[in-house]
């Protein structure tokens, strides 16, 4: 069950497919008496057909087996564990992870017969021997755990053996079947077409299923959170004060306020600059300027956000504090909404500008010609014809930028700090752009880092926060895509 | 034939509106118009015909300086409208284009309401002082483009929602609304079906009462139906220019004859 045998299985199937290609191709040629023009399809298609019928079912089965087997064995072994094997301070899940580790250790120790009597001295010796091969266990091995580990190992061995048999059978069966039907009238081209379609659908479903899986696991943890913590408090409370000793106040509003405020500042910076840059580049700049300026702006998009964060921390933050906040008496912190918003805005400029640039460019030249032909100047044309035509697309671009801003973490931690907004200190502090503030994403990270178990509401709140954020950005993205699509239809 | 002669006599008396002398146009290294000289008359429909790529559109776009919007285009020579040199540095190309309207091959209504489409030019040039005046200009232009009855109940709906033929007439109304003296049309019917084409042709015939109309067309029949004068372009040169009747019945140049009988094109 280590990686090597599995790799062998994959190689065998691949080799079979390669052989299948050659065999299918030559059988087709033979059935046409060597005259490839008598074949229904090009000779290669017969080869691909055999290769695909070897690969697709075999690998599909393999993937499915690898997914299901561990879950199934876990369930079976877990049912074997008597309740007495689970100490008061532990859970069945923790014991199962011990079982898996012991099974893994036994595997490394190699074939070793189980002794007739499993007594304390044997178990102690086993713990030492496992420790020597790198499998350290936190406590003494329970006899029940040892027995469970043995059956775990057995089941895995049997399961893997069956998997080999099934996968090879599928591969050979596919080979035989497709090889038999290969003759000059067989429509290999159409069959390959369908085979490729299946592969593509498979890829698409993996993408969709993964998303679904993520959402489901978030939903599951969120439900656990709301079992411990009232949802009214979470959504409508006004204070964020987690306390790992209990009695936390975990309201999303202060965090959501920070998120929206910082994102708003970022958009106020990014939208005008990005849009004007796009208008200049697409309508006024000569080709030479455009060839240099467009990539230069797009470089901004390639800078990792942590670098922006450092820029905020070291340069922008102190600058805003020394030149604005202190002289105006608005605060003395260098971490502030303005710092994070400004830097995040800079990060978003290339998003807005390059999307808008594409959209402005896709406004048909004929509209511009029409406007010039009526005696409009260039800026009149841009303002009255190009912009209205491009507006829905630009709104879409801005919404996409907004959902980027809402999900941003690094810049906020370094630029605006990690202190949640405090509603009880009054409106003045809430809207002061030179106050430190933090966002939903930052709090998700801070609730999950450190020594925490995944059972207290203080940790589980991260999932509720994450899910809420996900719903918001999903909504924005859907809206943006819908608007952009409507806009596209207008010109096609 | 009698008919034709009567038109000839009528056109003879008309005065010159546009006079081009020794016009050359280069796009980078491409020499698109080669020493073209032509006199276009007022209150007349003049057709430009010739095979694709011979420079008809290019020459047409010289008349309202639309080529200025193309970076690589270079124009030399002398073009006068009513005796005034339109390439004189004193002339503002933007103002010129209000006086020389243009209708394009593909209908290109703006993504605005029908009303706003027609009101676009008058608003930019400040032709109407009051809303009532603007309404009047819009109605008059739509009537002149023979589309008023079809759209009068839906002026606030988008112009892009009209059929192809209606869109093209809307574009003509839009061009007419700025009260131009010359109307340039670059294959205005090539995207239209035969019925819409007939409507636009009828319209062109009426427009010549007030304007000098220059139309580029690929259809010999259309040139014969709507124009009084025809210019035949070939490979960037003006091969032959004269009464439409003459060009189609007794062309002087062998290239003209080959083209209208379908041997080059
Ligand atoms: N914007 C342009 N840039 C470069 N070359 C052009 C451009 N427009 C037209 N041309 C060239 O000028 C010549 C004349 O084109 P055009 O006036 O469009 O011909 P027509 O309208 O008679 O079909 C063609 O060779 C064409 O390739
Ligand atoms: Mg043309």
From TrEMBL, chain B:
Matches recorded under InterPro entries: AAA+_ATPase, ABC_transporter-like_ATP-bd, ABC_transporter-like_CS, P-loop_NTPase, PstB-like
One Gene Ontology biological process: phosphate ion transmembrane transport
Keyword Hydrolase: no
Superkingdom of origin: Bacteria
Keywords: ATP-binding, Cell membrane, Membrane, Nucleotide-binding, Phosphate transport, Translocase, Transport
Function: Part of the ABC transporter complex PstSACB involved in phosphate import. Responsible for energy coupling to the transport system.
UniProt-recorded name of the protein: Phosphate ABC transporter ATP-binding protein
Species, as recorded: Kangsaoukella pontilimi
Phylogenetic lineage: Bacteria, Pseudomonadati, Pseudomonadota, Alphaproteobacteria, Rhodobacterales
